[in-house]
Specification:
This protein is mainly alpha-helical. It has helices spanning 2-6, 14-21, 27-34, 40-54, and strands at 83-84, 89-90. The longest helix is centred in the middle third of the chain and has 15 residues, at 40-54. Helices cover 40% and strands 4% of the residues.
């Protein structure tokens, strides 16, 4: 699914993603999106281990983007109301 989302496709829906992945139809992706059970804690832990492994290179650089974080005041830079998926609404 992640691989398909990174592909350059004109349209992204279960059919086009399935075709791009070589699936016969969208059923697997539809199941994944609507009915699959995900252990979020396990997924978070596995992503953390993978990320730490990727950043283990001495030349690696980690860039933190805090644009989705809530701002403490309205007079600081980039504090205007904006949609942030992280915060779930306009802030």
């Amino acid at each position: 699914m992640c691989e398909a989302m990174l592909m350059e496709l004109d349209t992204r829906n279960c059919w086009t993603l399935a075709e791009a992945l070589g699936h016969a139809g969208p059923h697997r992706l539809q199941h994944f999106l609507s009915r699959a059970v995900v252990d979020h804690d396990r997924a978070r832990d596995r992503i953390a281990v993978w990320t730490a492994g990727e950043l283990a290179d001495k030349n690696a650089v980690l860039i933190v983007d805090e644009t989705g974080d809530a701002k403490s005041s309205t007079d600081c830079v980039a504090a205007a109301r904006q949609y942030s998926g992280v915060l779930g609404a306009c802030v």
